[in-house]
Structures are given as C-alpha cells and as structure tokens.
Design goal:
Elements lengths: L11 H11 L2 H8 L6 H11 L1 E3 L14 E3 L2 E3 L3 E3 L13 H11 L3 E4 L6 H7 L4 E5 L5 H13 L4 E5 L9 H5 L5 H4 L13 H11 L7 E6 L2 H9 L4 E4 L13 H12 L4 E5 L5 H9 L4 E4 L1 H33 L12 E3 L16
Parallel strand pairs: 4-11, 5-6, 6-7, 7-8, 8-9, 9-10, 10-11
Antiparallel strand pairs: 1-12, 2-3
Helix pairs in contact: 1-13, 4-5, 4-13, 10-11, 12-13
Bound molecules: flavin mononucleotide.
Length: 361
C-alpha cells in the first residue's frame, strides 16, 4: 500500500497513524516516552481534559481571525514549534525540515541546540521567525558565543531550558537500549546543568539585556515562585513547561500550573506554555488561560514523521481548522475575545495518555 500524500490526511488521527507506521521502534519510543512512571506525561493530558468550555452563542462569528502576535510579528496561529533535540532521527533534514514547514505555514520555530543541522544551517533553510534554545554545555564564553551566533543568524530571542538540572530516566529508551546521538558522546552520568543557578540568568541580562541583545525566555517554569523570580530578573518570557513529562516524574500538568504562573507574572512578562497540546481545543484553552503562545512538541514531530515538511504543514492546517471551529462555537471571533469565563472545571472522560487525544489510534 502506498503511503497517503499529505493532502489526503483529513484528521490529525490519520497523521499520527502514518507517523507511527513510518517510525522505527527506537525513535518512536524516544518521541512518545516520558520519565519513569510517565505520570507527568499523562497529567499534561489530564489537565487539559479537565477543562470544559462555557460557550456563548449569537455573537456573529462569520469572520474568525485565528492569528496572533509573536514577539511583535504576526503569525497564523498562537503556536510555535517547540524545541526538539534529535529531530533528525524522526525526519530527513531534521530541524531544517521543521523550519521549512514552519515558514510555509506561518508559525515560529524554536530550534534546539541538540538538533541537526545546527544553528546556521537551520536559519539558512527557511525564512521564518526563529528562537534559539540552548542547553548549557560549556562555560560563559561558550554561552556567549551561542548568543552571538543566534543574533548574527537572525534569531529573534534566546531561550534557556532550565528543567534539566539532572538528566531524567526515560525508561522506554533505557529498556530499548536507544542511545540518542548527542548523548552517545557525553560522559556517563553527566548532568551538565546541575550547577546552573539564577546567577547565570542575571549574567545574561546584565550582558545582553539592552536593546541590542536578544529577549530571554526561561523554559521549564512550573511554579508561581519561580515565575516571580524570573520576572524579577527581567526575563521577557516565562515558559511553563515540564518538558513534555520527560524530566521530573509526578509533576503537575502544564495546563494545571498555568493559572498560578499567569497570576504571579501579572502581565510583567509574556507567558508561553507547552505539554500535551495536541488539538485546536487545547490551543484555545491555553490562550484562554492567559498564555500568549502554545508550544507544539510531539504534535509537530508527528506531522514531520508522517510526511516530512508536507506532513507538518498539513498537521498545522488541520489544527488551524480545529481552532477556528472551536472559537466559532465558543462565540469568539478572535483570541482577543476569549476570557477565563469561557472555561470551567470538568471531569475528564477518558484515560489520559500521550496519544489519548486521538482515540481512533
Ligand atoms: C523528542 C523530543 C525532544 C525534545 N527535545 C528538547 C530539547 O532539545 N530542548 C528542550 O528545551 N525541550 C525539548 N523537548 C521538550 C519540548 O520542547 C516540549 O517542551 C514538549 O515536547 C512539550 O510537550 P508535548 O510533546 O506534549 O507537546 C523535547 C521533546 C520531545 C518530545
């Protein structure tokens, strides 16, 4: 049987099924797995599934605008491709393919520092709004060199991922003896970021915090307390994330943490979020809770694994359609019209899991 062309995908479920069929067991486990019991992975979905909608009617939604601003630029949806290390194990071209898909559809890409073909080649691959995400693997000079290269190559912001003080135990990878290429060369048991502290954030802001520098995003905030400290350091974006449940096990779902962070930040910085966002309704929930951008981790990977650049673009098109249907049925003609009053607590009705948003799989 020939694999379907991307235009034949009519639902995200078909894209997920094609991705699964195309992906070898090692990379598949790497993609869908989480830490230890995978409780945090499931709680990401549970938190989203535990939010219900309160629709308003008769509001003239004949013209829906599902676009949004991202660091001052207009994007087609309030979503971005979250940083993914080792994308090259899931799709030919790795981050360059992600860049092309992001540019073709019209959303930003956040590039991981552990993804091929690297900072310069990914920037050259396509013209889209880009953010560079760094795992700190060297001294201050090494970090500064990455900031300079990001700026020289047109990246709009710089992101430090901070939920990686220890490298977690991802048991699907361990059991399957799947060794990520960038881990293969690392000394056993190395926890590169265990010595990092807020001092490094202060150093970044002191050195690059003026108008010539790049705005700073701190990715991996999961409490109001740390959001407050980030804002006190002048961070431009507080990114609520638990790394897709791949780091600390038994954490809370991102959508459950988001309200306390939005409240603590109180408009002094932007709040972005990721973790389990797989559907248009999920994106709408994240924005209604006060995030200005939703990161797509596994969903973007699934699109790329299904059919490369075309698969990613198709996944984003279907997501956009889902967003528009949801906004219209909520009586909101744009994201600006959404409020927390469109949401309420509701019991989840299905067993949460990494792919539970796709019950036909
Ligand atoms: C395969 C894979 C690789 C990832 N690599 C990185 C990375 O290099 N840097 C990073 O900050 N986060 C990384 N993450 C976390 C994502 O950026 C994002 O926080 C997470 O995937 C969001 O959850 P979701 O997959 O449920 O959407 C990775 C996630 C996955 C699934």
């Amino acid at each position: 049987m020939n694999a379907p062309h991307s235009e034949e995908f009519l639902t995200l479920q078909e894209i997920v099924a094609a991705a699964r069929a195309n992906t070898a067991p090692g990379p598949w486990s790497y993609l869908i797995g989480g830490a230890e019991t995978e409780t945090t992975v499931r709680r990401n979905r549970l938190a989203l599934d535990s939010i219900g909608f309160r629709p308003r009617v008769l509001r003239d939604v004949s013209r829906i605008d599902s676009g949004a601003a991202f660091l001052g630029r207009r994007m087609r949806l309030p979503v971005m491709l979250a940083p993914i290390g080792g994308l090259e194990s899931l799709v030919e071209g790795g981050a360059a393919s992600a860049a092309r898909g992001a540019a073709q559809f019209g959303v930003p890409q956040m590039l991981s520092s552990v993804c091929q073909p690297g900072l310069e080649a990914t920037a050259a691959a396509a013209d889209t709004v880009r953010v560079f995400q760094l795992y700190v693997r060297g001294d201050d000079a090494w970090v500064d060199d990455h900031v300079k290269r990001a700026k020289d190559n047109g990246y709009s912001a710089f992101c430090l991922t901070v939920d990686v003080a220890m490298y977690s135990r991802r048991e699907r990878d361990i059991v399957g003896r799947f060794v990520k290429p960038w881990r293969a060369t690392a000394p056993a048991g190395s926890n590169f970021q265990s010595g990092l502290s807020w001092d490094q954030v202060k150093r970044y802001k002191d050195k690059f915090g003026d108008k010539h520098g790049l705005p700073l995003i701190i990715k991996g905030i999961a409490t109001a307390e740390d959001a407050e400290i980030a804002v006190a350091h002048g961070v431009e974006v507080v990114y609520v994330s638990n790394h897709g449940g791949r780091q600390l096990d038994h954490g809370l779902g991102s959508a459950a943490v988001l309200p306390e962070v939005v409240k603590a930040v109180a408009g002094r910085a932007q709040v972005w979020v990721d973790g389990g966002f797989m559907r248009g309704t999920d994106v709408v929930k994240g924005i209604a809770l006060g995030a200005s951008c939703v990161g797509l981790g596994r969903l973007a990977c699934l699109g790329l694994a299904a059919d490369g650049v075309a698969g990613l673009v198709r996944a984003l098109e279907i997501l956009e359609e889902e967003v528009r249907v949801c906004l219209g049925l909520l009586g909101a003609a744009s994201f600006a019209e959404l409020t927390p009053a469109h949401l309420c607590a509701a019991p989840a009705v299905s067993e949460p899991g990494v792919l539970s948003a796709f019950p036909l799989i």
